[in-house]
């Protein structure tokens, strides 16, 4: 089994649990820098359950969010 697959499986297990693994609020760093970002097309890598992508979309960004775990997104 490759390292990537193993890592993906561990995230799948974490996201399969009840509730949100990291809550529903965006991370602190994103909240701090978001006001300085130009609104436009935004790619959120490693976005887990999508909390950062949702936040950016609410600010008017056209967001594509991806994660290693299909269970998370």
Can you describe this structure?
The chain has 3 helices and 2 strands. With 73 residues, the chain is α+β, with helices and mostly antiparallel strands. The protein has one domain. The protein has a two-stranded parallel sheet with strand order 1-2. Helix 3 links the parallel strand 1 and strand 2. The radius of gyration is 13 Å and the shape is elongated.
Can you describe this structure in just a few lines?
This protein has 73 residues and is of the alpha+beta class. The chain is built from three helices and two strands.
Give a quick set of tags describing it:
two-stranded parallel ribbon; 3 helices
CA(first)-CA(last) distance: 23 Å
Q: For the largest beta sheet, what order do the strands appear in spatially?
A: 1-2
Low-pLDDT parts are none
- The SSE string, one letter per element, is HHEHE
- Quickly count the helices: 3
Report the portion of residues in β strands: 5-15%
**Helical amount among residues, as a percent range?**
25-40%
Instruction: Classify the secondary structure makeup into a structural class.
Output: alpha+beta
Q: What's the story with the biggest beta sheet?
A: 2 strands, parallel
Average residue pLDDT: 88
- The total number of structural domains is 1
Nearest-angstrom radius of gyration?
13 Å
Q: Got a strand count?
A: 2
Topology, element by element:
Blueprint: H1 3-16, H2 28-33, E1 41-44, H3 51-58, E2 62-65
Parallel strand pairs: 1-2
């Amino acid at each position: 089994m490759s390292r990537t697959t193993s890592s993906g499986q561990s995230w799948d297990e974490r996201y399969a649990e009840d509730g949100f693994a990291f809550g529903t609020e965006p991370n602190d760093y994103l909240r701090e820098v978001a006001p300085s970002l130009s609104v436009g097309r935004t790619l959120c890598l490693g976005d887990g359950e999508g909390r950062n992508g949702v936040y950016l979309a609410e600010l008017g960004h056209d967001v594509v969010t991806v994660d290693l775990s299909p269970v998370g997104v």
